[in-house]
């Protein structure tokens, strides 16, 4: 397992122990918060080279780190973990919605820091940071087995952390509601940022996997995604559409421009761009579908579309498709290469269709338990009035949105 790099001037053996005996995500989130602050800081040092990080900054960072995997991927952080409750507390007390899907990480942090400072959210800081995690993260530096009371342990760690001889990761100053990172630790965190981040990610993935058994590709869902690389998928589907004129799985109408390449099961659930889960979809349909799982009735038509797509390219002896992108079908659908189209006359076989059905049944059940919306339907949407918000098919539409959705579905009686 990857471990933090050694350093002759620091007790790294203590750092290695900080994630032991964790029952919640707080230690993981706090260390990442300290690491990120140390990584970006080139100023805010006092005359002795110490870096100050306020409780509000640490709290805001912790919530911003947790918000994306919770909101986008519906991850559970464990029964005893209260991080979701702390996010809800901030929203209710500040009348502000933390939307990690519409903001980048820096915007989230900036907004959260502002909320903690302007609304004086000390109670949330205390529950999130001060009560337990801030001092518990430093436990490896202290011998506390003889002390029974947590409150006494907390005081011992807070006072002891200010003893520079102990070389704790940071020093705690409760009255000033801040921590100080010493120059030697700051240098270590900055010089070894990439390795320490990798070490943190391994521990975080293990924690999330433990609390989300069976969820696919957890390691790929830790941070905001970079743009999906669907270049080859677009090329393959464009050629197929040009010559074969397929119909949309959802609307049963010809696939025409403008269309995009969509994930049948949303990327927010699967976390990958494998070819077997991709298909063309009119861009406006995609706006409506978003990260919902389509109604299960669409699975068989989708599987047949995939069959015809493969048959077209395999019949053309598309070497690139065969060598690079074909292997994901037998690997993930648990079928043999012989179960894929063999020639231009091949009809969809039962094994291929059943493989999609069996795989998606498991995914649908798991996604629903996680909190994803399952059963998105393609339906005709009717607007009764352009001046009112109307709730139709679980989507809120306003007059401004009406134009955006005109090409999404056939409209009738639009007044």
The N- to C-terminal Cα distance equals 64 Å
Unreliable runs, pLDDT <50, ≥5 residues? 380-415
Oligomeric form of this entry?
single chain
Lateral arrangement of strands in the main beta sheet: 1-3-2
Q: What is the radius of gyration computed over CA atoms, rounded to a whole number of angstroms?
A: 26 Å
Shape: elongated
Total number of beta strands: 9
Tally of separate helices: 18
Order of helices and strands: HHEHHHHHHEEHHHEHEHEHHHHEEEH
Mean pLDDT: 85
Helix content: 40-55%
Brief sketch in words of this structure:
With 415 residues, the protein is mainly alpha-helical. Helix content is 48%, strand content 8%.
List keywords for this structure.
disordered C terminus; 8% strand; 18 helices; 3-stranded antiparallel sheet; 415 residues; two-stranded antiparallel sheet; 48% helix; mainly alpha; elongated
Q: How would you explain this protein's 3D organization?
A:
The protein is mostly helical and 415 residues long. The chain is 48% helix and 8% strand. The strands form four sheets. Strands 1-3-2 form a three-stranded antiparallel β-sheet. Strands 4-5 form a two-stranded antiparallel sheet. A two-stranded parallel ribbon has the order 6-7. β2 (171-173) and β3 (178-181) form a beta hairpin. α2 packs across α3, α3 packs across α6 and α14 crosses α17 (350-370). The longest helix is centred in the last third of the chain and has 21 residues, at 350-370. The radius of gyration is 26 Å and the shape is elongated. The chain starts with 11 loop residues before the first helix and ends in an 11-residue tail after the last helix.
